[in-house]
Design a protein that fits this description.
The structure is a homodimer. By secondary structure, chain A is an alpha/beta fold. Chain A contains 10 helices and 8 strands. Helices cover 43% and strands 15% of the residues of chain A. An 8-stranded parallel β-barrel of chain A has the order 1-2-3-4-5-6-7-8, surrounded by 7 helices. The first copy, chain A, is globular and about 45 Å long. The interface between A and B is medium-sized, with 27 and 27 residues.
């Protein structure tokens, strides 16, 4: 089954980082006004805010608070930094609870001064260490496998198979996985690993954007859906066939789009969502 | 078994692109003078040259001509371009034969306007189409799996498992595989796939450099061995344990190093080779 076009915006979520020039009040007002139904909040957008009131403000605008981004960054060669990371992740769980969302996305981290295997072990230990807090807060810890070009410092979990292995090993209802097309589109095993992820009840989030050719920056040159080579709609059909019924989250880091007037950019997002995802 | 330090340079090969500011005569003279024993020639270094005489010149400097870089780029949505690519690959095989090397490295290609699966099929068809010429010339077609960040335009073969699958499917003594640490270091299955590659007689080449943190350019910011996070020596031990006994080829694309005085850079390469690979 190939996914059909989006006739409405009922499953559209936008990340605050996507429209980074807007503060969270502007994002809420503009997302809501444009018909967007979900918002994923990046922690930087909450700095200096009363988090409970901010969550209420978002809901008052009719927005579902899909998730908080991001926890993670567990691996460090230095034990003190690992302890600090666990404390910061517990804080992030608390923030997610205050915000009123049930999902915390984990960018798991990596330390280039130690082997990937060691970073992966520290990720698993780190998640296990914060599971009691996640359960108490009703917040699902959502592992996001990152593109292999981020294996040095951002994540030692670089394929959906690895994320599936880890989620299955942790074996908790408070652990899930975020499938992001930007990170995973190239993987020849993607369809089968999405099926496995859904079958095992771990498919918690779906992030969309596109890979531009050429891509001029390793981090900040993501494209709108349809601008690049990722078969977003095909991957969405795999995710939906695997039982996923949640939001399609637009997560775009782009210096070029951040320089644009953001209301016009939001219109482009909605057009791209309806026609290319 | 962990690989030991390099006490000599008998297995050191340098790619002409690594010292791009030098023409091939300068590269030959300087490599030879520094004790380098092998050279891999990029086709741009042969432009306007008599290729037979150039091969003889390299051998006169005591250099083994390890391989010619590069053929490939088979996939195109346009049939005429696919036909042109096959013609160009036959020309590259002829050039390799004239140069007196027995290996042609393939950067297999990808067309972002079609699905990866289609590009992969076209790669397989392209290699099959040129196998008779490779056999007649005694030139091994060496598939180089490329990092997933190049899946849009440079190669739809992005893991060693995929390259192994393709080489085994083609099942020819004239097909091999190049293991490049830059492209493959992040892969959790790397050790087992290197073993499989060696066991099946397909491990033809080993390329080294390093992944810098941060990496500021998707193509032209590779590091010297020891400058980054790739466990080059550990991967070399896997390659040697799998039966590989050929050259260690230093392949670095770096705007920063190309701006340096190249004799000094060559000294750094040799130091890095002896101490970090």
């Amino acid at each position: 089954m190939i996914a059909t076009e989006h006739s409405d915006l009922s499953k559209l979520c936008v990340h605050t980082i996507t429209t980074k020039p807007w503060n969270i009040e502007e994002a809420a007002r503009n997302f809501s006004g444009a018909g967007v139904k979900g918002i994923t909040v990046w922690r930087d957008a909450l700095e200096g805010k009363d988090i409970r009131k901010t969550g209420q403000m978002l809901r008052d605008h009719g927005l579902s608070v899909v998730s908080l981004c991001r926890g993670g960054f567990f691996p460090h060669r230095d034990q003190i930094k690992r302890t600090d990371a666990i404390a910061d992740n517990k804080k992030a769980i608390e923030e997610a609870w205050q915000l009123g969302t049930t999902m915390l996305v984990l960018v798991c981290g990596a330390d280039p001064s130690q082997p990937l295997e060691e970073s992966r072990k520290q990720i698993r230990d780190g998640i296990a260490a914060i599971l009691p807090e996640a359960e108490a807060a009703g917040v699902k810890l959502t592992i996001e496998p990152l593109h292999p070009m981020y294996a040095d410092t951002r994540s030692a979990i670089n394929t959906l198979a690895q994320a599936n292995d880890m989620a299955e090993a942790l074996d908790s209802p408070w652990v899930g996985i975020a499938v992001d097309v930007y990170h995973l589109w190239w993987d020849p095993h993607l369809e089968q690993e999405i099926k496995r992820c859904g079958t095992n009840g771990n498919l918690s989030a779906f992030h969309i954007c596109d890979w531009k050719s050429p891509t001029t920056d390793l981090l900040l040159d993501r494209g709108l859906m349809g601008e690049g080579c990722i078969p977003v709609r095909k991957i969405r059909s795999w995710v939906e066939n695997a039982g996923f019924n949640g939001f399609n989250e637009v997560e775009i880091f782009s210096n070029a789009y951040w320089r644009e007037e953001q209301s016009g950019f939001l219109k482009k997002i909605i057009h791209a969502y309806q026609n290319h995802s």
